[in-house]
Amino acid sequence: MPNYVYFLLAVAALIVGYIIYGGIVTRVFGVQPSRATPAQTHADGVDYVEMPVWKVWLVQLLNIAGVGPVFGPILGALWGPSALLWIVIGTIFAGAVHDYMSGMLSIRYGGANVPTFVGYNLGSAAKQIMRVFAVVLLILVGVVFVAAPAALLAKLTPSALNLTFWVCVIFAYYFLATIMPIDKIIGRFYPIFGAILIFMAVGITVMMFVSGTEFYNSAQWANQNPKGLPIFPLVFITIACGALSGFHATQSPLMARCMANEKLGKPVFYGSMVAEGFIGLVWATVGMSFYHGPEALAAALAAGGPGNVVTESSFALMGTVGGILAILGVVVLPITSGDTAFRAARLTIAETFNYSQKAISPRLLIAVPMFVIGIILSQVDFNIIWRYFGWANQSLATIVLWAGAAYLVRRDRCHWICTIPAVFMTAVCVSYICFEPSMGFGMGIDISNIIGVAAAIVAFVAFMVLGRRTVDGAPENV
C-alpha cells in the first residue's frame, strides 16, 4: 500500500470525526436553537455584532489557527508518526471538544470570557487565577505572532523592508484591529485572508501528489527524534494548536458574541478545529515527506527554524509565484490570531473591571499600555517566549476541559467527553514542567512521568468527589 494512503486515511478520519463525534458532543451539550444568543441580547455594534455563519466560521478559523498548526507540526515531525496520531486523535477527541465547549459556554454565560465561565464552574479562586493567566497568555501570543510573520515577510521583500519594518507594520495593524469594531477590520479583511489560507493548505497538499513526493519516506513506528527526546510529554506540548490549544478558549468568545443561533456551534467551533487539524496534518506530512529523515529535517530547522522549512518546501513544491502565495498563507495564520489575541486581552481586562468598551476612549485606555508591554516583550528571544507559550497554552486547555466536565456533570450529562482528555492533559502538563530543564524543574523523564500520572489521578479523584458541588454565584439556568 503506498504511503500517501495513510495521509488520505488521516484526512478521512478528521471528516468522519466531525460528522459522528461532533454530533455526539452537540447532543451531550444540549443545544437550544430557540434560545437567544449574546449577539441578540447584548448587541453593541462593537463586539456583540451578529454576522453570517460563513463569516463567523472563517473568522473563528483564522482566529485560532496561528503559527501553531504550521510550526508545531513541523517540529513534531521530528518524532515520526506519533505526531500524525496526536494531530488526528487529539483534534477529534480533545481539541475540537475543547473549542466547542469554550464557545458554547461563552454563549450560555452571555458572551463571557474564559476566566468568567471557568470561575462559574470551578470556583472564584480559579476565576482570579485564570484572569491573570489568560491575559499573560494572550499578550505572549500576540508577541509570538508578531515575530514569526515579520521574519517570513522580511525574506520575501527587499532588504530595505527589514524585520524591524515589518514588526512595526504588524503591531500597527494589531492596534487598529484591537480597538475598532469587529466588523470594520476583522470582518472585512478576513475573507481575503481566508482565500490565501485555503490556497496554501490545498496547494501544498496537491503539489505533494503532483510532484511525486514520497510520503513519509523514512517514517517508522518508533521514536525517531534525532536527540532521543521522549514522545511523552514533549509531542503533546510541541504540537499544540494543530491538535489542542488553550489559546482557542480565549478566541471562541469573540465569535460566541457574533452567532445568530446555538445550532451553529458544531460547524463554527468543532468544525473550525477540524479544519485546523487538517492544516497541522499537512505540515507534519511536509516535515516527514519533503525531507528524507528526521536528521535532514533537524538540519533544516537548525538552519532557520520552522520558517526555513516553510520557505524551502513552499518554493520547491509550488515554484516562485505559488511559493510566495503559500508563504503568505502561512503569514496570514499568525497575523489573524495575533490581532484577536490582543483584542481578547482587552476584553478580558475590561470584563475584570466591569469597564464598558462601547466608546473609543476606554478601549484606548486598556489597549495603549497593553501594546507598550507587548513591544517590550518582542525584544525577548523568540525561542524563550515560545517555550513558555507552549506549556501555558496546554495548561489553559486542561483547565477549560475540567470546567467543561464540571458543567456537564452538574447537569447529569456525559462528562467523560471532557474528563478523559482533561485527565490525560493534566498528566502531560505536569510531566512536562517537571522534565523541562530550562523553564521547569529538570527532573529525569521517568520520575517526571510518575509525578504527572499521580497528579492526573489526584485531579480525577478530586473532580469525582467535588465536581457536582454548585459554585457560589454561578447561574444555574444555563
Would you summarize the structure shown here?
This protein is an all-alpha fold.
Characterize the structure shown:
It is a single chain. It is built from 17 helices and no strands. It is mainly alpha-helical and 478 residues long. The protein has a single domain (3-400), classed as Amino acid/polyamine transporter I. α3 crosses α13. The chain starts with a helix and ends in a 12-residue tail after the last helix.
List the helices and strands and how they pair.
Blueprint (H helix, E strand, L loop, with lengths): L3 H26 L8 H4 L11 H12 L3 H9 L5 H27 L5 H9 L1 H33 L6 H17 L6 H25 L20 H8 L8 H10 L8 H25 L4 H59 L7 H18 L4 H28 L6 H20 L9 H22 L12
Spell out the key features of this protein.
74% helix, Amino acid/polyamine transporter I, 17 helices, 478 residues, mainly alpha
Q: What's the structural domain tally?
A: 1
Per the CATH scheme, the topology name is Amino acid/polyamine transporter I
Query: Helicity, in percent?
Result: over 70%
Corresponding CATH architecture: Up-down Bundle
Mean pLDDT: 90
Domain CstA N-terminal: 7-158, 161-282, 306-430
Membrane topology: Multi-pass membrane protein
Keywords: Cell membrane, Membrane, Transmembrane, Transmembrane helix
GO biological process, one term: cellular response to starvation
